[in-house]
Every structure is written in C-alpha cells, then in structure tokens.
C-alpha cells in the first residue's frame, strides 16, 4: 500500500506530470523504496498508522518527493540506472547527464535527494546498533 494518495500529492506539489491512472504505480514503487531505505522499520513497527503524526507527515512528503523524482527523470532511467552515455546531433554533443556523473551506484541514483534529506534525521533511518547497556535508549528503537 502506498504511503500517499493522489490528492495528498496534489496538495504538496500541485498538478503532477503524470495522470491519476499512472499515479498508483509511481506511488507504490516510491513507497517500496521508502521501505527499503528505512530498513522496513515502518512495517516492523506496526505500519504507517502506528507512526506519530509528525513522522507520518515526513514519510508522506518523502514519498511525494520520490514520486516527483520518478516522474521527472523517467521511471525506467531511475529503476535501471541506465543513463544514455553520450550522443551527438549536428555540432552539439552531450555526454552523460545529471545521473551519469560522480561515484554514485545505480542503487543510490534511485533515491530522491529530497526524500533522503527528509528522512535521514528521523529514527526511521537510524543506522546505529542497539546495545543493551546503552545509557539513553532511543525511544523509537524497534520501529
């Protein structure tokens, strides 16, 4: 189940470049990717409705950002990591593109930078390892 509806997406970003019939596919894939980068903590913690309101809002915003990222860059490009190498038309030559540079892997290119920025300061993306002798336990441990 997607973490965002079409109407919620419209409230955040306005009219999307995709229509309402394609939106469930984009939202479902974006939600799956959010689950993956959060190590499935949303599902393990009782589902989306078990999250506090502020965290639900951030997850919805991150999912909306991921849908926008998919729609702007092209679902096939983002999911496969294949960006055209280079091409020349007349005297104009284009090499790579926005996704081709840097040392990023295709898995890293799948994630919207905005979605990651929205979630990285939440307990959903916490990467520490819980130790029983921790003096101050994270209240969201187990989510």
Descriptive report:
- The chain has 143 residues and is mostly helical.
- It contains 7 helices and 2 strands, in the order H-H-H-H-H-E-E-H-H.
- It has one domain (6-125).
- The chain has helices spanning 6-13, 23-37, 41-44, 53-73, 75-80, 106-109, 113-119; strands spanning 86-89, 92-95.
- Helix 1 packs across helix 4 (53-73), helix 2 (23-37) packs across helix 4 and helix 4 (53-73) runs antiparallel to helix 7.
- The radius of gyration is 18 Å and the shape is globular.
- It starts with 5 loop residues before the first helix and ends in a 24-residue tail after the last helix.
- The model has no long low-confidence stretch (mean pLDDT 80).
Shape field: globular
Tell me the count of domains.
1
Order of helices and strands: HHHHHEEHH
Oligomer: single chain
Rounded average pLDDT: 80
Q: Widest sheet: strand order?
A: 1-2
Structural class assignment = mainly alpha
- The fraction of residues assigned to DSSP E strands is 5-15%
Number of strands: 2
Rg of Cα set: 18 Å
Low-confidence spans: none
Q: Main beta sheet, described?
A: 2 strands, antiparallel
* Helix percentage: 40-55%
How large is the count of helical segments?
7
């Amino acid at each position: 189940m997607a973490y965002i509806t079409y109407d919620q997406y419209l409230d955040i970003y306005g009219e999307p470049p995709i229509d309402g019939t394609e939106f469930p596919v984009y939202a479902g894939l974006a939600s799956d990717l959010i689950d993956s980068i959060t190590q499935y903590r949303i599902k393990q913690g009782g589902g989306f409705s078990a999250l506090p309101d502020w965290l639900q809002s951030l997850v919805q915003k991150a999912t909306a950002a991921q849908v926008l990222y998919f729609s702007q860059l092209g679902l096939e490009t983002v999911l496969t990591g294949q960006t055209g190498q280079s091409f020349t038309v007349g005297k104009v030559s284009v090499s790579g593109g926005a996704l081709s540079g840097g040392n990023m892997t295709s898995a890293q290119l799948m994630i919207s930078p905005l979605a990651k920025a929205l979630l990285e300061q939440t307990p959903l993306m916490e990467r520490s390892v819980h130790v029983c002798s921790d003096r101050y336990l994270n209240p969201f441990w187990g989510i």
